[in-house]
Amino acid sequence: MNRQLSDEEIKAIYDYHNLDQQKLQGLKDTANWLHINSIQVTTVASLGHPTSCCSAAEIMVVFFHTMKYNHQDSRDPSNNRFVLSKGHRLSYVAISFLGQGHGAAYGMAYTGKYFSQASHCVYCLVGDGEVSEVSM
Prior knowledge:
Helix content is about 55%, strand content about 5%. The chain is built from five helices and two strands; from the N terminus they run αααβαβα.
């Protein structure tokens, strides 16, 4: 059953993520840009699934707002990892794993924890097709 968040819960989320109205508006603007861009790219290319792209826009924005990543040093072992395993030919990235991303993400997390004792997190975004067609 879905329920509405209380004002206290919403404030706690804003405080935890250090969100003010300006930053929140920036995240909304980025999600809107992703919506528009994904429709344009899939239309021009005549391939891909614009609805898959649009349904992931807000999630992508939240991931990249929350993830820790050093843009100056992409090989920093403490950088978080993001694996996209959602759908066919998403226009956000050049390559996405169809149904194989969760295995890759699991391998990254396992290796980080048990072999390199890394302090990174691994995020994996899967779609309904992967969940229903692939062993999760």
